Amino acid sequence: MSLAKDFDFKGQRALVTGAANGFGAAIATLLAEHGASLVLADCEEDTLKAIAGRLNAECHVYDQGDAASVDRLIANAGAIDILMNCAGILVAKPVLETSVDEVRKLFDVDFLGVFQLMKGIGSGMVKRRRGVVVSIGSQTAFCGAEGRGLYAAAKSAVSQLTRAAAVEWGPHNVRVVCLAPGRSLTRMTIETVKADNKSDRGIARVPLGRWGTPEEIAKLAVFLASDAAGYVTGETLIADGGFVLG
User: Fold this and answer.
1) What percent of the chain is helix, strand and coil (3-state, nearest 5)?
2) Does the pLDDT of residue 29 top 70, yes or no?
3) Which domain holds residue 129?
4) By CB count within 10 A, which of 41, 132, 199, 228 is most buried?
5) Residue 237: which pLDDT band, with cuts at 50, 70 and 90?
6) What contacts 14, CB < 8 A, 6 or more positions away?
7) What is the pLDDT of residue 4?
8) Is residue 186 part of a domain?
9) Contact 113, 164 (CB under 8 A)
């Protein structure tokens, strides 16, 4: 028995959002290495075009928090076999210090944008009876998430949306999964990680004794999208070095 065929993405078209850096860039790179045809999307035009050029990928500049912009991305992306929902923002504030406007922006990007993409791209998958959706959630959805409560709420909503879509789309041969990283060394989270290192939320709370990397998360995302995970749907896989066990 060989796993090589399970990780062969030739002939599959993957849309990766948040592809300009962090998890999205790492996932896009790994998918390209395994033969996928890529459509990359992000709000950072210059970085996105550089990565798209390196990976010989199609690219679209868009704003995940703007519904009309997301609709344009869906319309221009064409038929997609794999949707990687990696775009997101972080609000790292206590509940009492977070404004309503900050919460609206957070949910617009981290939940509503994900929902809109899942619905728009997923409808085509259901019709073609083929496809996989992998959304980046968060470890914070499974712990107290002090200082990140609203971010955790948005990511919890992504996990629940994953379950609902998996039940509804499973009969149409479409899998929907979520990947929940712990604190990882990405540009978006590096300052939070540094702050955590000085508190009881720091590295001492991680049984494996270190933070994660985008490359490690990319390998798990590509596994979930592959035929090797063909009997997995509706799940949120936590990859946090054991942080939530403490």
Assistant:
1) 50, 15, 35
2) yes
3) 5-238
4) 41
5) very high
6) 28, 31, 36, 37, 38, 39, 80, 81, 82, 83, 84, 225
7) 87
8) yes
9) no
The fraction of the chain above a pLDDT of 70, given in percent, is 93
- Is residue 80 left, alpha or beta, with left meaning phi > 0 and alpha meaning psi from -120 to 50? beta
Show which residues are catalytic.
151
Q: Is residue 182 part of a domain?
A: yes
- CA-only gyration radius of the chain, Å: 17
CATH assignment of the domain containing 146 = 3.40.50.720
Q: Taking a C-beta distance cutoff of 8 angstroms, is the pair 60, 36 a contact?
A: no
Instruction: Please give the structure tokens belonging to residue 135.
Output: 């959304």
Question: Please, what's the largest Cα pairwise distance for the chain?
Answer: 55
What does the pLDDT average to over 86-92?
94
Question: How far apart (Å, rounded) are the C-alpha atoms in residues 73 and 121?
Answer: 10
d(CA 189, CA 27): 17
| 246 found inside a domain | no
- Confidence (pTM): 0.94
State residue 145's pLDDT score.
82
Number of structural domains the chain divides into: 1
Is residue 190 a part of any domain in this protein? yes
